[in-house]
Each structure stands twice: as C-alpha cells, then as structure tokens.
Amino acid sequence: MRLVLLGTTGYHPSEHRHTPCMLLPEVGVMFDAGTAMFRAARFLNANSLDIFLSHAHLDHIIGLTYLFSVVREYPLQQIRVFGEAEKLAAIEEHLFSEFIFPARPPMAFHELGANGSVEAHGGVRVSHFPLQHVGGTLGFRVDGPEGSMAYVTDTTAAVDADYVERIRGVDLLVHECYFPDGQEEWAAKTGHSCTTPVAQVARAAGVGQLVLVHVDPLATEVDPIGLEAARRVFPNTQLGADLMQIEF
Asked: Helix, strand, or coil here: 139?
C-alpha cells in the first residue's frame, strides 16, 4: 500500500507544513481532515473516500469544509466520515453552524463504537482504539492484503500505554512527535509526545518502520525533533514531510 502525508504539523499551518491529513489513495482511506485536505484530489485513485477522525480539535477537522474543492476536482461517489458520536455531533452543531459554514459538503457521518472495526473501501479493515489526550482521541490500525499500518496522534507516548499492544507488528507506524527531547513538561501539559518515547514505543511494538508527524509548527529547523535521538532507539525512523509518499 501507499500512504501520502498530505499534512504533517499540528495546531496551525506553517510556511512548509499543513495540519494533519494522511491518505491511502488507492483504497480511498484518509486519517484526519486538517488544512492539507485541499491536496487530496491530486492523489486520489478510488471512487469513494472514508475519512477517520481521531478527534474534533480544529486542526484535525477544518478540512471537512474544503471537501467541495476536492469533489469539484475529483468527483467521488461516496464520502463517509467516521468518528465518535459526541465528536461528530459537535462538528455538526458548531463547524457546520449556519453562522460559520452553512453549506454542508456531500458526506455522511458514521459513528464509531467503543470497540470494533470498519470494513473500509479497497478491502482494508480499520480498527480504532482510545488514546490519552484532552477531550479524548482515537488511534487507528489498518490491516489489508498488502500491508498494515497504524496512525497515532495527539497523545503522550509511553511504552506502558495501552495502545502499544494495538499497534504491535504493523509494517508502518505514523506517530505524532510534537516536541524534541527536553520538552517533557510541555508534552505532558499539552498531551503530546517527545522524540525518544515515541521511538521506544516503536521498538516495544515491533513495528517495521516509524514516521514522525504532527511536529511543532513554530519549529523552523530542518530537523525540529532530533531525528538521531529517535534512530539511536529505533533505526528505521523518518521525519515526515508534507507530500511525502511511503510504500509499506
């Protein structure tokens, strides 16, 4: 399978990165709907699109309002948006309020239960699991005939976290890494992760490769998270960048 990182920062866009949006173009599966949503049409290669929302913080959902541009460039037969019931209700009430964005894109909301999985387009199964974050968030695992991956964002990485078992053995782990090492206090305060704990999670879970995303938009360095610190723990680590394509 192929994953396209449409957006790899969090909170707000920067000069080089848009907020979270990850696309499996051949099977029409997307994780989160950040400001990078407008890029989806140039990569889509499926008739339908399933969007799985980790949570309803604005940097992860604002792209739902951009769907008109996507379907104008790339007509889709169906768009399904999956999320927790209370998050979908908040999006419906507030984001699509008549005073904020009164035109509703051609999509249907589908609630995710506490456990279970969804048979998504393209013959892949997407399962979800809870993560620790302010207001609650979800991680996702994809299992298909060609490979497996997990998407973990907006949480504080720890090797004893419950989600480590849910991502065990995936070919590709896409995990948030907002802060470099040394910012553990900020990570705990904001519900985000530092570099070394993320690499330790990848090693503990026995994944094939690790890609770090949801990096600090204020960081202007070429390497804002200290990539070598991660590679000392888990050598097969990359820093994600907008429009990066990954085969797994």
From this structure: strand
pTM above 0.90, yes or no: yes
List the domains of the chain with CATH numbers.
2-247 (3.60.15.10)
φ/ψ bin of 181: left (φ > 0), alpha (ψ from -120 to 50), beta (otherwise): beta
> Tokens 């070598």 correspond to what residue?
228
Maximal CA-CA distance, the chain: 51
Nearest to 213 by CA among 188, 185, 192: 192
Tokens of 138: 């979800």
Burial class (CB in 10 A: 0-12, 13-18, 19+), 90: middle
The position carrying tokens 């090492």 is 181
Task: Identify how many contiguous H helices and E strands the chain contains and give both numbers.
Answer: 7, 14
Q: Residue 12: pLDDT band by 50, 70, 90 thresholds?
A: very high
DSSP secondary structure letter of residue 104 = P
Percent of the chain with pLDDT over 70: 100
Question: By the 8 A CB rule, do 64 and 109 touch?
Answer: no
- pLDDT tens-digit profile of 169-183? 999 999 999 999 999
